[in-house]
Amino acid sequence: MTTHQKIASTIVALGMMAVILYLVRKRHLREEFSLIWLFCALAMVGVVWFYPALVFVTHLIGAVLPTTTMFIFAFIFVLLLCLHFSISLSRLRTQMKDLTQKLALMEARWEEEKAGKGTDLEENK
Amino acid sequence: MKNLAPDRNPSDKALIIIPAYNEERNLPKLLEKIKDKYPDLQTLVVDDGSSDRTSQVARSHQVRVVSHPFNLGYGVAVQTGYKYALEKGFRYVVQMDADGQHEVDDLGALLKPVTAGLCDLALGSRFLGAGGYRPPLSRALGMRFFGAIGSKILGQPLTDPTSGFQAMNQRVLKVYVGRHYPDDYPDADTLVMLHFYGLKILEVPVRMYAKQGASMHKGLWRPLYYMAKMCLSLLITYSLKEHFHRRRPKE
Q: Does A103 contact chain B (CB < 8 Å)?
């Protein structure tokens, strides 16, 4: 890897880190989600400046070119990220449903009390 | 129908849950018929974020109303009704559709085996009765397929697993408000889940009519999604068999 390539890649990685930190500061991105992106940028710097490590991993997994190794890990990373977002979305969907139901039930209770109906348990006393 | 709703204790009364989405046209006829046939039963309309006057129409008929601020789907709407019923202490619930698909006259027959303690859930079946509406072939095939799977697991015939015309007691309600309730398309998977919880299901003949308005099974994507989702849900439910066995609900 040439020095030019190393410098260009490092600038891209540092730029990415700056954007992530800016988004966290502006509260457009939560810290819990930003960590994974910061880790991704750091990994980019690590791969660029410790190129022999990438070559070693390439031999380890039986790939021919270091670029193939990069693409494989990038693909796995994106897949895991998608899974992480699917889990988050599922949890949010359940929380949103529970919250909406609670709100609707509270509103109904409030309207019944306002109309003087009271609750059935009160009627039962 | 006095025997179904004793006056001495409000908690003995049954609640009729009607999930409704843009049903301002069908609701008046249905609510009037219910009031006429079952004056002692309480009715709850769950307005699932309708853009028309569904809530106002329901309120004008002096029934209970719970409104979702936006549309969450059929399964969530009925689950809101179950939560309401438990919160208010109702011992029995009958759920029926707002679109006139279910025959009000059969409501009593559906509720009777539950109040008599013969079963925990009475499932209205259009295929056990004298006839009437028969679904289109694609839907009928789906019903048969999941009916066959359900029958095999339950060890009893299950002719209409997609029926939304059901009567249930508090034990079933407690299962239905839990986190394992499939709130997108509650169907044969819920029946299998109830069976694993040790609850008794009984099919009762009822009359059903063609659905007014759009069906969720129209188009290509929806039936395919439904089939795949139901297969997956049945598989997951089956894998949780032991978990359900250990947590049998008490009334």
A: yes
Looking at the structure, tell me whether residues A68 and A107 fall in a common domain.
yes
B38 touches chain A (CB under 8 A): no
Alpha-carbon span B91 to B5, nearest angstrom: 10
Domain that holds residue B188: 2-245
Alpha-carbon span A2 to A67, nearest angstrom: 15
pLDDT in tens, B125-173: 988 876 666 777 777 888 889 999 999 999 999 999 989 999 999 999 9
A80 touches chain B (CB under 8 A): no
The pTM score is 0.83
Among B136, B70, B125, B88, smallest CA distance to B103 is for B125
Q: How far apart are CA A61 and CA A54, in angstroms?
A: 11
Is A105 in contact with B84 (Cβ distance < 8 A)?
yes
| Domain region containing A13 | 1-49
Size of interface A-B (CB pairs under 8 A): 49
- Please give the ipTM for the structure prediction: 0.82
Query: How far is residue A51 CA from its own chain's centroid?
Result: 27
Judge if A67 and A114 occupy the same domain: yes
Write down the pLDDT at residue B240.
93
| pLDDT at residue number B183 | 87
**Dist. CA B10–CA B85, nearest whole Å:** 12
Tell whether A37 and A5 lie within a shared domain.
yes
